[in-house]
């Protein structure tokens, strides 16, 4: 008679299976936490890579325009695009560098006097006195600490610009190398979709870049003309500041308006009001004409999402995050649309059929 087998003393199969699943979950959580920590530490580096990609997008967009006009081969057009951009910037700094340098130095020296003059003008009115009282009651130490933490970057502004510029040049010289490298990471069935997503991202970012540069040039020109007519000193520096800060939607124009309005108080309160109205009219023109033209080239970005992305990116990475918040939001929306929304639409259509 065969004796029945006895199970070995220990855990049952169900208990072993449960323990195995627990260890798998713990491993996944640990890996996720490690990845999040790595991304948090390297977040500024990723932003610089993205900024370098935007520079490469600009160079290739400029090369596209040269190729359409000349019908030359791609390589010489890209070389002309890069060298022409540096030559144009060098020429502008050569002719306007001394003027801008003197105006910036004068603005830095005169700024405390401008603030005091604005305070004295405001205190002459009831509403102005309330504004001065609110501003004076705010803790200046807290303001400086907030500003330093908000506008700090990982390697410093000059170091970031140096790295971003060279990344942009490398990406421009061999874009297919990096594009194909990313696509190789995608499974074979999804490679065609990856190509389509990359092409759409390139199209959207080129359209955004063209529209933004057009808006910046238009605002700088209109601001310089208006300030010169009004008679505000340092008009060239203020106009360039307005054009550059327009790169930051919503908050940039307000930041550019502050020094111009303060300089207007040196003349009179009415002059300051005229300057503020001029800035508001220029921004209204940009918002109702230039921005719709930009959105035809890319996608319609909800204003609330734009502000949320700017605040979030500014908190995470300071000034670099604020500058790149809008194009990053555009990339995220395109990826969601391509990888999720369209797939859901296709699945719905298949179910209906």
From TrEMBL:
Record-linked InterPro entries: AI-2E-like (IPR002549)
Key words, A-Z: Membrane, Transmembrane, Transmembrane helix
Bilayer-spanning residue ranges: 21-39, 45-63, 75-96, 150-171, 212-245, 303-336
Subcellular location(s) per record: Membrane
Keyword Nuclease found: no
Bilayer topology term: Multi-pass membrane protein
Name of the molecule in the record: AI-2E family transporter
